[in-house]
Amino acid sequence: MRRTNVDGTVMTNNVALDVDGVLGNFETHWRECAEEVLGRPMRKANEQHSMGGRYELTNKEVDAVWQAFHATEWGSVPMYDHASELVLALEDLGCTVWAVTSIDERHRSARAESLAGLIPAGRIVCVGHAAHASAKANVLRDLGAVAFLDDHPANTNAAIGSVPLSVLLDRGYHGLEAPEYGVTVIDDVMDFPVLVESLLKRTGRMPLAEAFLRRTERMA
Question: What parts of the chain have a pLDDT lower than 70?
């Protein structure tokens, strides 16, 4: 059963996911890179969002780690165990899943390599390593996305008004802005498909019969 808009075009439920901290275990990989570059174990000092602050590194040390990471490491960021389950759960709802990630375009092929086909290369959007939060919001607007999941409150706050459902995965980071009214906060990533399903049903974008059919097809 294909849902259509009033003009007869096929209705697409685009959903956007951040990668690092949502699908990919960026922190562990960055820490391991830092240990190799700096030649000593890294011990977490706090829950600051910046990696240098979290591991109490000097600016010179942070620059050295990032130089090495940018050179060789984006393609091998490991996925969390829940990554496949999350994407498949969204696809079961009839969603088209996009990766909207804060890395430079030059690392797009490496990002696709790390995702290992979980999200096709053609649905990976790189907004830049130092991009303003509004960059992701602009991508969401261009995609006509119905939902967005990120672990940085600046990005989910900026997405309000660009997407019906903006969701923050709370990792407990310190020193970041608070989520604004209109952002849904979760601490379990698998709550996100539940929220998306509720939105699709509420807005008539996914009839119950279609949801049942998709789950049946996945189980067959």
Answer: 1-11, 207-220
